[in-house]
Amino acid sequence: xxxxxxxxxxxxxxxxxxxxxxxxxxxxxxxxxxxxxxxxxxxxxxxxxxxxxxxxxxxxxxxxxxxxxxxxxxxxxxxxxxxxxxxxxxxxxxxxxxxxxxxxxxxxxxxxxxxxxxxxxxxxxxxxxxxxxxxxxxxxxxxxxxxxxxxxxxxxxxxxxxxxxxxxxxxxxxxxxxxxxxxxxxxxxxxxxxxxx
Length: 197
Description:
This protein is of the alpha+beta class. The protein has helices at 15-29, 40-48, 91-102, 116-124, 154-189; strands at 6-9, 56-62, 65-73, 76-82, 107-112, 128-132, 144-149.
């Protein structure tokens, strides 16, 4: 790891540098990660619009400048990127340890299934793979998976995830019941189809 690595919260003036690091890291990760689908200017506009009152963005830097960042929202690690020329130097591990200290009750993240290096990095640091998808819900349409760090009380963390699924299931069942009732009402009001021509 570079000497005198500093971890600090981002300020609005850091966002342009974060955007450039994000673009460089994503480009260097192909083909482990699918190519980004947005033009660089759109990515720059998106990152520089981040509301730092809603996102907890932390930077890893030395005298060389910005070397990595982590973006945390609620109980999700949305992004963790390291400058391509500094991977393998412990910067990502330092950022991940910081996120663990910020979220002692656990957190989740998404990673592309093809990104075997990132999957190994997270597994080696105690995260578990939970849910594989076909990628239909992400912009790149590339298979991904949800990983989780279960925190200091894993049973409580996994129970909370199950409760979240139960809540989602209850909403879906209520929607299905409403649609079934609407279908029944329409069917009851339709005249019977005539027999024959």
